[in-house]
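Good morning C.,

I know you're traveling, so I'll keep this short. The sequence:
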Amino acid sequence: MGETYLRKHAPKHAEIICYQCTDDVLNALQNNEIDAFARGEPCNGYIAQQQPEFNIIDIQPSLEKVGFAIAKENDMLLNIVNSELKNMSENGTLSKLRKFWKAYNIHLLS
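The tokens, ready to paste straight into the viewer:
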């Protein structure tokens, strides 16, 4: 979750601290150095599975888009990626990934 978004939407009295990695955030939470944290949707789902003592109180759909860029002239790589994505969709792998990562916004784009 972006720092700019948090500064705009967090309560005025909230102190926003930025960490470099998830492990640092989890350590701070476990050591009572912070009261809460905001992370992206897939990260929150993973943390909830790995750290059941933490509660996710609100899941907002991620507005972040992630994509892969492939050079126009690299038809072979494009075909391999598209073929594997199609296979993953058909054999249920993408559904499993959505569930594992709590990432409801994974979509195949053609």
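Safe travels,
E.
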